[in-house]
Amino acid sequence: MTTDVVQSIDVTVPVRTAYDQWTQFESFPRFMEGVERVEQVTPTRTHWVTKIAGVEREFDAEISEQHPDERVAWHTDRGTHQSGVVTFHRIDDATTRVTLQLSHDPEGFVEKAGDALGIVQSRIKGDLANFKQFIEKRGHQEAGWRGDVDAAPQSGDRPTS
After folding, report:
1. Cβ(11)–Cβ(18) under 8 Å?
2. Closest Cα to residue 97, out of 106, 107, 87?
3. How do residues 25-59 score in pLDDT, each as one tens digit?
4. How far is CA 123 from the centre of its chain?
5. Are the C-beta atoms of 45 and 149 separated by less than 8 Å?
6. Which domains does the chain have, with CATH numbers?
7. By three-state DSSP, how is residue 134 classified?
8. I need a surface site. Which of 7, 85, 88, 126 has the fewest CB within 10 A?
9. What is the rounded distance in angstroms from the CA atom of residue 152 to the CA atom of residue 42?
């Protein structure tokens, strides 16, 4: 059974700063609990190693859509099953709302029990709070990837001429 989680947080940095830092996936272990390592394999592919509640997982994620200062969407294609999107909304010149939407399929008894107890939702809320603290303390991004990745057409969509 798929679980959907949506969480938002306002960070006191400009939208470009928040977005650029978020695209530095290899820095995720510095503010995401349970993320041991993220390797940027290609501009649109990452390899993850996580350890959550004693369960270690390795999986690959593919960025399916990315637009600077707006959104990054992804899905896994090997290992754990999840997809999501993070969006960046300008509140004012110095404030950005970061919204994370995640769909995942818990596997096994431990993950299903944790999901039923709201642990994933709590973890996402905590990770966003950690991101807020991380980026606000720095005051600037480490770097950023400003590339654009268009979403693949959905079946039934027709190209326009």
Report:
1. yes
2. 87
3. 999 999 999 999 999 999 999 999 988 777 788 99
4. 12
5. no
6. 3-24+63-138 (3.30.530.20)
7. helix
8. 126
9. 18
Specify whether the CB–CB gap between 57 and 50 falls below 8 A. yes
Quote the tokens at residue 43. Answer: 């501009």
Give residue 44's identity as a one-letter amino acid code: T
Backbone φ and ψ of 124, nearest 5°: -65, -45
Alpha helix locations (H) across the chain?
Answer: 15-22, 108-116, 119-138
- Model pTM? 0.84
Helix (H, G, I), strand (E, B) or coil at 44: coil
The letter for the amino acid at 112 is: K
Structure tokens at 45: 């592919």
In 10 A of CB 151, how many CB atoms?
Answer: 12
